């Protein structure tokens, strides 16, 4: 891995918290992701399943974590199964975890090779009553591919049909939503790398550069700072492209007088950051662009203040909608009649701001968290309002990542990234 090794105490604590919520006499199993094929002998780069990473720190394919807090044998209360490494694998694929290194990374003492899985699994299944299945229940999930986790669940259910089944996901949704100080530090690193990429762009962007040139500059900076690259597919949308919310082609020239909406950020150690900034190609906003920019920034600043313990996500978005409505009235994009006759299910402001303002962020860019439960300290959220005006040929989104505090306003992990229009113009014209 490119990143510095993470303190194993994080994973020890995460497992302790998870096991503390398991039913008596139960086991929980977590699988690595597959390496997904492309064609011929080509594969996509490996991305570890975030749940097994969260609980073990193991960042390697063909790995299985088994938790059995009530195991009769103490050594079977936490077990890692790994692909056995050897000299041939080391030469052709590079270093894989040895049993000693796996302990160093995870804090798990009992490590078996995968070839011992069926024998050990039979033993623990004769001793437990319930098996926790790790399903994907994220509110945005839409998975058509059968995963390694799915195949494992099919296998054990066919072999041991009399066991009760429970779900890991509700436990993980709550645990992963509240970040440990070590996690916040890793996310801060991801944000700091993103800052370096963004500052690099302010010296680079000018009329005639292409969207993909900007993407290349960012990738250079991210990888040079120990990131694998982008935390998600980058959006670099000049001119009217900004009005396509998930524009990812990044294949158009940036023209004088246009704006570029960039939703781009680095990952670090599998943790995401998520940044949006909108900058002028020519180094200066027009009066109309500046008026809209400042309106979006005001909405972001007011929305951020509402991210405090006890806030309900749905109520928060209603309040942000009221602030946005006021700004759109001031910009002349809607009028009072539009507001009076609006559909409550699709308020007038949605014509120009049609997406949500905030989502959990962490190991996943759209991270775990149960949206119907009140916000808590040490949850990390994005704040990302936008105004999109196809008739005027531009759209503006501004986004930071913030940590909810016990008291007061959230801590902004992106506080050092230029955001005020004057500072952006000044840096672009140095």
Automatic annotation (TrEMBL):
One GO biological-process annotation of the entry reads: proteolysis
Q: Which InterPro entries match?
A: Aminopep_P_N (IPR007865), Creatin/AminoP/Spt16_N (IPR029149), Creatinase/aminopeptidase-like (IPR036005), Pept_M24 (IPR000994), X-Pro_dipept-like (IPR052433)
Q: What EC number(s) does this enzyme carry?
A: 3.4.11.9
Catalyses:
Release of any N-terminal amino acid, including proline, that is linked to proline, even from a dipeptide or tripeptide
- Sequence ranges assigned to domain Aminopeptidase P N-terminal in this UniProt record: 6-142
Give the superkingdom in one word.
Bacteria
UniProt cross-references to Pfam families, sorted A to Z: AMP_N, Peptidase_M24
Cofactors needed by this protein, per the record, are: Mn(2+)
Q: Which UniProt keywords apply?
A: Aminopeptidase, Hydrolase, Manganese, Metal-binding, Protease
Q: Member of which family? A: Belongs to the peptidase M24B family.
Q: Which PANTHER family match?
A: XAA-PRO AMINOPEPTIDASE 3 (PTHR43226:SF4)
Q: What is this protein called?
A: Xaa-Pro aminopeptidase
The scientific name of the source species is: Aquimarina atlantica
